Amino acid sequence: MHRREALATLLATFTSSAAFAARPQVSTLIGTGVPGYSDRQVNNPYGLVIGPDRALFFCDLDNQRVRRLDLRTGTTSTVAGNGQKAYVGDGGKATDASLSMPHEIQFDAAGHLYIAERDSHVVRRVHGGTGVISTLAGTGTAGFSGDGGPASRAQLRQPHSIAVEPGGRRLLICDVGNHRLRAVDLGTGSIQTVGGTGERLPTPDGARLEGTPLNGPRTMAFDRSGTLYLALREGNAIHRVAPATRTIHHVAGTGAQGYTGDGGPARLATLAGPKGLAWARGALYVVDTENHVIRRIDLRSGVITTVLGTGQRGDGPEPEPLKCALSRPHGVLVDSRGVIYVGDSEAHRIRMLA
């Protein structure tokens, strides 16, 4: 072989190896595939966030706890919940309180942790300094009441998702059972409906958010500009809310349930009960729960693709992302490095795509 041919072969081999090494691979961060409660086991993980200390916090749903995973050491600790499914403990340490199906969590700029508890019909707050838990919104009884008054006296019905607005003034709540999006002013404590009418009707494209029907608002995420992305579980669609006009615009999903459209416009694709969203680097990541996949929408081109999962329910195998089956995933998070974390709920794992 001539020297030039040898160099070309070496370069081609190196390029191919580098490209292979650069492909994202999936691995299990915590979980064994069997439900449990330990440094190695979880039981139906849902929402996830990176905390102020750069640790991973997650809802360990069927353990009725919110837990912290140190990403450097791999050790876990409980930050809220005693393992009992109930609504008790306000005014005491969060670790001594009982939670009832914690679905999603968020931190505010002051380091306070907010927990959406579906079956208690409340949103609770863990004080960042003292660790004391209290109720921010909801009475513990399902219903719809209280707009214009204190959030702690208002009724919610199965709140699933929460998000702190950019600037930190309000906490938004997906009040799924009431088919409404509600907002709590964190300064005054008052609550108001900001979207949804209580009707299970289609959402008109371009309409004002206030007074427009929302069919099962399940989860949401903000981008850096303050645009809100909102997934409708029963509506099988994703919309964005323009911050300047407060109008709502169709992003993905036809409204029909299915698993089609990869490689084409997200607006023409079908989804099946989307239950998690994360924005990162000009893309929206969608937990397409009943399709058992994570999908990515390029917000510039509008094209949707699958980045993790096979479309069939299962548990692995790892590490090839499109060969790794998931089992009704719910939570998704993308960190500052672009690493994707997924609460692979009924596989009882938190997976990492990096």
Automatic annotation (TrEMBL):
Q: Which GO molecular function annotations are given, in alphabetical order?
A: protein serine/threonine kinase activity
UniProtKB keywords: Kinase, Repeat, Signal, Transferase
EC identifiers of the protein: 2.7.11.1
User: Which stretches make up the Teneurin NHL domain?
Assistant: 85-243, 257-313
Under Gene3D superfamilies, the record lists: TolB, C-terminal domain (2.120.10.30)
Q: Which InterPro entries match?
A: 6-blade_b-propeller_TolB-like (IPR011042), NHL_repeat (IPR001258), TEN_NHL (IPR056822)
The region annotated as signal peptide is: 1-21
Which SUPFAM superfamilies does the protein's record reference?
A: NHL repeat
What is the protein name for this chain? Answer: Serine/threonine-protein kinase PknD
Organism name: Luteitalea pratensis
